[in-house]
C-alpha cells in the first residue's frame, strides 16, 4: 500500500502541465526570447503610431471610405494579414467616433488586429 502512495506522489510531478513557470533550466532562454519579442513589438508599435499620428486626418478619411493608402500602410506596419483587412476595416468603421477622439485607441486597435 505504501508503494502505491509513493508511486502516485512520485509520478504526479511528471505531468505535461507542470505549471506556468515551465522548465527552470529554460528560464534564461525564455527570458531572452521575451526580451527580443518585446523589442520587436515596441518597434512595430512605434512605426504604427508615427503613421497614425503624422497622417491622422488621412487615416480617419481612409477608414470612413473603407480604403486608402494611409490605412493600408498602417495595417501593413501593424502586421494585419491582407485576408483579414476587410473585416478589420468594418470593425474600425464601427468605432470611428472613438478613433476620431483618441488616436492612441486607433494605434492599439491596429496592433491588436495585427497580433
Can you describe this structure?
The chain has 115 residues and is mostly helical. It has a domain at 39-115. Helix content is 76%, strand content 0%. The chain has helices spanning 2-12, 27-54, 56-65, 69-78, 85-94, 96-101, 103-114. The radius of gyration is 23 Å and the shape is elongated. The termini are far apart. The mean pLDDT is 85.
Gist of the model:
By secondary structure, this protein is mainly alpha-helical.
Following the backbone from N to C, one meets helices and strands in this order, namely: HHHHHHH
pLDDT averaged residue by residue: 85
**Overall strand count:** 0
Gyration radius over CA: 23 Å
Q: How would a crystallographer describe the biggest sheet?
A: none
What portion of the residues fall into strands of 2 or more residues? under 5%
Oligomeric description of these chains: single chain
**What proportion of the residues is helical, as a percent range?**
over 70%
The outline comes out as elongated
Structural classification: mainly alpha
Distance between the termini: 52 Å
Q: Tally the helices: what do you get?
A: 7
Keywords:
single chain, 115 residues, mainly alpha, 7 helices, elongated
Topology:
Blueprint: H1 2-12, H2 27-54, H3 56-65, H4 69-78, H5 85-94, H6 96-101, H7 103-114
Helix pairs in contact: 2-4, 2-7, 3-4
Amino acid at each position: 500500500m505504501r508503494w502505491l502512495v509513493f508511486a502516485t506522489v512520485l509520478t504526479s510531478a511528471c505531468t505535461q502541465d507542470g505549471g506556468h513557470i515551465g522548465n527552470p533550466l529554460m528560464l534564461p532562454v525564455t527570458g531572452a526570447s521575451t526580451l527580443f519579442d518585446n523589442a520587436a513589438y515596441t518597434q512595430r508599435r512605434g512605426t504604427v503610431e508615427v503613421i497614425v499620428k503624422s497622417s491622422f486626418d488621412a487615416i480617419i478619411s481612409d477608414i470612413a471610405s473603407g480604403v486608402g493608402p494611409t490605412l493600408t500602410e498602417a495595417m501593413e506596419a501593424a502586421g494585419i494579414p491582407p485576408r483579414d483587412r476587410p473585416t478589420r476595416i468594418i470593425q474600425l468603421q464601427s468605432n470611428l467616433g472613438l478613433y476620431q477622439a483618441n488616436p492612441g485607441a486607433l494605434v492599439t486597435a491596429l496592433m491588436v488586429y495585427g497580433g
